[in-house]
Design a protein that fits this description.
By secondary structure, this protein is an alpha/beta fold. The protein folds into two domains: 143 residues, Rossmann fold, CATH 3.40.50; 311 residues, Dihydrodipicolinate Reductase, domain 2. Helix content is 33%, strand content 20%. It contains 15 helices and 15 strands. The protein has a nine-stranded mixed beta sheet with strand order 14-13-12-11-7-10-9-8-15. A six-stranded parallel beta sheet has the order 3-2-1-4-5-6. Helix 1 links the parallel strand 1 and strand 2. It is globular and about 85 Å long. The N and C termini lie far apart (56 Å). Bound molecules: NADP nicotinamide-adenine-dinucleotide phosphate. The site of NADP nicotinamide-adenine-dinucleotide phosphate has 23 residues, from helix 1 and strand 2. NADP nicotinamide-adenine-dinucleotide phosphate binds next to helix 1 and strand 2.
């Protein structure tokens, strides 16, 4: 019988940081005793400040949710701490010696999770590589070496390319796990399931039947405490549209993969991102709206008054874009993307709006002559309600809803709106797992499907860069202002044309 695999080692750089405390450790506690146990892994936290294993464990315990406490207490003895500067080669050598002493030793599979500031991604990988900590043989199934890179991955195409090149000097692509936590969400993964498992949707999923698609990520909070400086340097386009929203878009619109193999899925996503029509810098004002929140009616501070926001800041907290995909399936179908902070409501959703029937037999507007009715039908100015909309809600409710029209009871043929509704929690009796649980598990198992490939990141930056460049030159759209707690600037409504309808309100 083959020897059992040695336990893996998860090395978290940035171990005292916000992400580790709020997400990574609770995710590992949730996996403890379920998908993973003592035989599977130990954890080594790394940050510069000195502390003992015991004090580190006690510090982490504070942020573990009540329901995960018992699992955390089982996990805690396998959590260790090493003070080290991630970019310093001598510190990394000492780290290597410590890892050799932990369960599994040099034979353990090692997952290096870089929960660090982005400018440390490159230097940390370089320091690890110089100490031989990333060396890996071809086709290694044990003692593998993988690196998880947090977001943001670059701040434009050029810096993303430079980081990719730097990483590839030390790592093979199959060792690099670029994270976008949206892909770890059950409902985001379900976009693939919904499309490719159910034969009823796919035949309709194209320009012949879909009129438009809209994707919204609306937040009701403003800039989080302590993150004003970071956000002011980033803005809504870089923080949300370039990564999470384009990821959701690629899953909604990609071609069917031949299999669920990571490369099959990721290649289709890259193809789709490459087919996004780049904004013409001279016309970027026609396809995008940018804005920032002003003071709200309930005393919310304006963005410019938030702590850490620079004087004279020109950073957007709201972006809306009318995107187009130049491929056979989607030619001419607009994809309307919108994200804002301090909006009226928190929700993330995808809406696929199907075309209306070619002849409207029901609910014709009163008082139109037959000629006028046919003329308005021909020009598309008869703005009747679209009966068929498929809404995939990603948060806070995880649900799928298909709306359709039914005959209203009574003597006349009047159609009224109705819907089929599916709710994850109601159906499965439990909330979907946190995204980081799935992503950590996949990284340990060596499954890269839900992680971004280098060319995928570059394809999404290419699109984002064109919009950014348009904003910086040419007839750039003005930076508008919307009251905190509102639906954003009314100018965003103009991205819908003719009878296409308007933005969802969740
Ligand atoms: N927080 C979130 O919700 C969130 C969400 C998505 C993505 N991210 C990404 O995750 C990463 C971490 O974010 P965060 O919010 O957790 O940051 P953070 O709270 O500022 O924590 C940074 C951590 O890095 C450590 N550190 C700094 N310099 C170091 C060095 N040279 N060597 C070793 N450790 C060092 C710090 O501890 P010492 O000072 O003791 O060294 C601290 O533990 C960032 O890339 C961020 O963009 C965060």
């Amino acid at each position: 019988m083959a020897d059992p695999s040695p336990p893996n080692q998860i090395v978290i750089f940035g171990a005292s940081g916000d992400l580790t405390r709020r997400k990574l450790i609770p995710a590992l506690a949730a996996l403890e005793g379920r998908e993973l146990d003592e035989a599977d892994f130990s954890v080594l936290g790394v940050a510069r400040r000195e502390k003992s294993d015991e004090s580190f464990r006690a510090e982490l315990a504070i942020d573990v949710p009540e329901e995960l406490r018992p699992a955390y207490h089982r996990l805690a003895p396998r959590i260790h701490y090493q003070a080290a500067d991630a970019s310093d080669v001598d510190s990394m050598r000492a780290l290597g010696a410590r890892l050799d002493e932990l369960p599994g030793g040099p034979d353990a599979g090692r997952l290096f999770y870089l929960s660090l500031k982005p400018d440390l991604f490159g230097p940390t990988v370089e320091a690890l590589a110089e100490c031989g900590l990333l060396a890996m043989r071809e086709q290694e199934t044990q003692s593998w070496r993988r690196v998880v890179i947090e977001k943001p991955f670059g701040r434009d195409l050029e810096s993303a390319r430079a980081l990719n090149e730097h990483l590839h000097r030390w790592l093979r692509e199959d060792q690099i796990y670029r994270i976008d936590h949206y892909l770890g969400k059950e409902t985001v993964q379900n976009l693939l399931g919904l499309r490719f498992h159910n034969a009823i949707f796919e035949p309709l999923w194209n320009r012949h039947h879909v009129e438009l698609v809209q994707i919204t990520v609306a937040e009701d909070i403003g800039v989080e405490r302590g993150r004003g400086g970071y956000y002011d340097d980033t803005g809504a386009l870089r923080d949300m549209l370039q990564n999470h929203m384009l990821q959701v878009l690629s899953l909604v619109a990609m071609e069917p993969p031949a299999s669920l193999a990571p490369e099959a899925v990721r290649s289709q996503k890259v193809e789709l991102l490459r087919a996004l029509r780049c904004a013409d810098p001279q016309h970027v004002d026609e396809i995008s709206v940018r804005a920032r929140y002003g003071a709200g009616a309930n005393g919310e501070a304006a963005y410019v008054d938030e702590e850490g926001v620079a004087f004279g800041s020109q950073t957007e907290t709201f972006i809306a874009v009318r995107a187009e995909i130049d491929n056979w399936r989607w030619s001419g179908v607009p994809f309307l993307l919108r994200h804002g902070k301090r909006m009226a409501k928190r929700f993330t959703e995808v809406q696929v709006q199907f075309r209306t029937p070619p002849i409207q037999l029901f609910n014709r507007p009163d008082g139109l002559s037959a000629d006028e009715y046919h003329r308005r039908l021909r020009e598309g100015s008869l703005c009747e309600i679209r009966p068929n909309v498929l809404t995939v809600s990603l948060q806070p409710r995880e649900a799928i809803r298909l709306s359709f029209g039914v005959k209203q009871p009574g003597a006349s043929m009047v159609m009224a709106p109705a819907a089929l509704d599916f709710d994850y929690r109601e159906h499965f009796g439990k909330a979907p797992a946190d995204a980081y649980e799935r992503l950590l598990l996949d990284a340990l198992h060596g499954d890269q499907t839900l992680f971004l490939r280098g060319d995928e990141i570059e394809a999404s930056w290419r699109y984002a860069d064109e919009v950014l460049e348009g904003w910086q030159g040419g007839p750039a759209p003005p930076l508008l202002e919307y009251p905190a707690g509102s639906w954003g600037p009314s100018e965003a409504d103009a991205l819908f044309h003719g009878c296409e309808g308007g933005w969802s309100r969740g």
